[in-house]
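quick one, 419 residues, struct below
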Amino acid sequence: MAAPTEAQKKSWPAPNYENPENLHGLIIGFTIPVLTLAVIFLGVRFYGKGLLRQILWYDDYVMLAAMIFAVPVTLFPLICLNLGLGMHMWDLKPEWHTPYWKIGYTADLLFPAACSLTKISLCLTYLRLFPSRTDKIFCYVLSIFVTLYTVACLFLSLFQCRPIKSYWDLSVKQECINMRATLVAIAALNSFSDFAVYLYPARPLWSLHLPVKQRLGLIFLFSVGLLVCVAGVLRMYYLEVFFDSYDTHWSGVPVWLTMVLEMNIGIICGCLSGVKPVLAKVFPVLFGSSYKTRSGPSRPTYGTQTHRTAHGEPFAFHQLSDVPSNKKSSTQKIEHTFSVEAIQGGDNKAQRNFAWASSNGKMGADSGIPSNAIGVNQVVSVEEEDARSMTPRSDVQKAVSDAGSEEWIMDDGPRPRKT
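---
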């Protein structure tokens, strides 16, 4: 932070304590909606997974911890509105200095923890989504890196000035490290981990054997994290602007807002996976499962192929693992007759209309169907995978049990039941 020169101080206008120029509207209009969205998405995640599906994993609780750290940091800019944030230096009251910088010091401690816990939660989610050895190594290494980064940030922020109270007390002589270089380096490492975590799913998701439209939708779902990456880069830029300016309470507004954006959008991105169960319950027509049993009469479908895995168990992430996909298949045709007898009666009251069905495939005189009936021949092709090329049932069950709530993203089918 640059110190104003005497010439600059002389050019300042007279203090305006009644109605000063400020950025309060921007701060309120940005902070409250972002925080509200983050809280809503986290609540929907826990409602969908905890109440509807009754499956909560470690990543859910880690995301909750991230929200606990993010809420106070998000509220700090609103509290600081009464301490001069968003106002020019010449309009600040002297008594605002100490409480303002105490809050800033606390934010420096909590912000890295909030961001890191969000990324660790996502890494835990990826461990279930992408179970290959390479993916697991990536998630473990990145989680360790983020943890060590958080500990380093904590100590650097905690002891950046000695004594600690000199950070906010101008009457105490201070010895500080290079705060500019430290904060920019912390922001750079944070942005690096942002890109690594939030963009990592794009590669495995694109390789899925799914329609292009569905693959693009999945990539978009996880690539919402790009906003987090952009916010991290912007924060580095505004930190440079902040340290070059003496008008700290005015130039510090973009730094606060990018912090709020980075934390809360990260939480929103991490909670997107738990939204679909709730949307399927609230809007079943739009987001309901395509495998749901329809009630009421249904018309037969002719020439339809049905694909199924062994024992009819849905496995949402089968293609994400290292299971080989070169499976042999055999096709068998099952023919059956669906017949409707249409008896034209005159005055004969004993005659009545009824449906006649047969599954023996006979259409001739031996079928027992009256000659005036309407016969419909329906051919159903069932493609089954060769049992020799199938993954052992125990492995499939293990993989299913490892899958979390996010299989509703990958597959609209019914979720695997946990035993």
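The chain has two domains: 18-286, 305-344+353-410.
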